[in-house]
Queue: 2 jobs
Job 1
Amino acid sequence: MQERKDERSLGELFGDLARETSTLVRQEVQLAKTEMTQKATAVGKDIGFLAVGGLVAYAGLLALIATIIIILGTAGLPWWLAALIVTVVVLAIGGILVQRGLSALKQQSIAPEQTLQTLKEDRQWAKEQM
């Protein structure tokens, strides 16, 4: 094969670089959109399962609480005291669980990390092209 000489001018080369960079940026934006859509879909599905599971568990918890109150009431405690004791215990457990959940949510990252990494690589590539 014959070696082909690139006889493009400097202006044409910079024009090509600008077009390629523009295409690359558009592709990165599309990647970010796709990645965020995938994450949002997964989170939405998980939230649905969490909500339905939470409702079922809540019904079971209410039944359990009623059972505990009945057991304490029939064991000789006044009904109001049995209900008060169970209420305080349930509120304490709920408070602890809410704090753990909030702490876990604060540690979650929703940033499109793959896109951010490729943007860093693209920036490095663009610097090398210059």
Job 2
Amino acid sequence: MRPTLPQPLIRLIGVYRADGGLVGEVRYLIGHYLRGQSCSLCDITHATLRRKAAWDERVRALGIPFELVHLNEMEPSLAAFVGDRAACVVAETDNGWVLVLSNDELAATGGDVDAFMEALESALGPSMQIP
């Protein structure tokens, strides 16, 4: 069982396993479609070329700030914490960064937004129920 996260949560951050910007997006698409590379968080948040409406709706209802960042967009302290663990979801707390969901846990959702929300709720524990 996962330990209870320290409260309060300041924000959640989803870290893609890809760089942002036009060049990063093109690199990801080439790697994804020609080499079979993937980003488990991209699979959850995006349909072919745009964000899933279900993702936006569910995140809006969380009541917790949730940001999505690419590898080249992370602030230095987050980049140092994440290291080579992207894709992942991290919580910023009063005590620093905490890994909430690993790449393997994200991949286990099969790209399904509802399965992601169930995994997130389980990881956050009973004090953080998600609508």
